[in-house]
Amino acid sequence: MQYPTLLSRFVGLLLSFIFLTLIGCHKSQDQQGMPPNTALPVAVLEVNPTTVAITGEAVGQTEGAKEVEVRPRIGGILLKRKYNEGSAIKAGQSLFLIDPEPYKIALSQAKAQLDQSIARAEQAKREKKRLEGLIDSQSISQRDFDNATSDEAFSIAAVSQARANLKQAELNLSYTNVTAPVDGISGRFQFSEGALVSANTSLLTTLVQINPIWVRFSFSDNELKALGGVLNEKNVGEVSLVLPDGSEYSKKGKINFAATQIDPTLGTQQLRATFENNEQQILPGQFVRVRVTSGKKDGVFLVPQLAVLNSDQGRFVFVVNEKNQANPRPVVTGEWKGQDWVILNGLKSGDKVIVNNLIKIRPGMPVTIMPTPQK
Predict the structure, then answer these.
(1) Is the per-residue pLDDT at 35 higher than 80?
(2) What is the C-alpha separation between 172 and 199, in angstroms, rounded?
(3) Which of 59, 93, 66 has the alpha carbon at shortest distance from 277?
(4) Rounded to 5°, angle at Cα 141 from 140 and 144
């Protein structure tokens, strides 16, 4: 049988055909490749000096402009809650009612004590006046008259004390109606109705004023140097807020507190800004980003971030020289502005910075400039 021989010959011919085909494809790719001296087409950006704002960003946390703990001034049984949890509260609005009956009784007793003191004072006054006529005729001793004078003084003092007790009793009765000290958003109800609360100790609820809203943040020493030095209300031009979802808050803020010393523990300057919050878009406790503008820089350049490369010696860009060659240029970068780097040093007006095909470029490689819109 010759079938195995024919089969082996067929397989050999097939392998030879595949090999020759691969060699032909490789040669075809080599022929289509770029010759060594062919210029690489690139897009460039002709840079010109511009002015940019000096800005810095920091993580901040929001807080209410006023955060008040509502506690009772007197103790007793909590009879009623008069507000809805989480609702907006006006200053002076009634929040809780503490059982007023014991304090009504105390007020009645104080009134009665005042009446008694007034009656005793009038009696002492009459007694002294009666004895004044007798002392002139020496019908009584000087000691009796002095005792009458002292009794009158004591009774007058007792009236003053009774009036003070009455006022305190009236205040205590008024404190059974617990009112809101400020405008704000009410917190959770801490005690159930019928609970016994203690004066100045039991926390009934909290009130947080969220319009305006405050934001606390800080900058380190190095960040302050980049911003021009220690910040305060006068040298900060604008404060903006970036919300947790990445959107920028529509209202601008202003600094309302700047620490006059650097925190020795953290090495930062503590700052606080205030923002209008009419629509209650921001709530206390949120983490946000605060962007501060403290001035402007003149004579800098803006270059796309992708055009700035890194090396062991630092950052650099490729610039097209007069021979149409790619020339690496070391640069000093500042902060980001959108999609651009701020270049502080290393470029001059009219430089053509290469902005694409950077992975293929080598120093000294010839390039040809493709049309590109001016920045």
Answers:
(1) no
(2) 11
(3) 66
(4) 90
Whole-structure pTM value:
0.65
> What is the pLDDT at residue 366?
93
CB of 283 closer than 8 Å to CB of 294 = no
pLDDT for the residue numbered 9: 55
- Residues 212, 63: contact at Cβ < 8 Å? no
- How far apart (Å, rounded) are the C-alpha atoms in residues 142 and 135? 7
All domains in the chain, ordered by first residue: 40-55+299-370 (2.40.420.20), 59-65+213-235+246-289 (2.40.30.170), 72-98+177-203 (2.40.50.100), 100-175 (1.10.287.470)
134's tokens = 């007798």
Res 375: pLDDT: 47
Name the phi and psi angles at 281, rounded to 5: -75, -25
Q: Which of the two residues, 24 and 73, has the higher pLDDT score?
A: 73
How many percent of the chain have pLDDT more than 70?
89
Q: What would the pLDDT profile of 1-30 be if each residue is shown by its tens digit?
A: 444 444 455 445 444 444 444 444 444 444
Q: Report the phi/psi class of residue 290: left, alpha or beta, with left for phi > 0 and alpha for psi in -120 to 50.
A: beta
Residues 6+ apart with CB under 8 A from 267: 220, 221
- 59-80 b/e (C-beta count within 10 Å ≥ 16 → b): ebebbbbebbebbbebbbebee
Largest CA distance in the chain: 173
Distance CA 220, CA 280 (A): 31
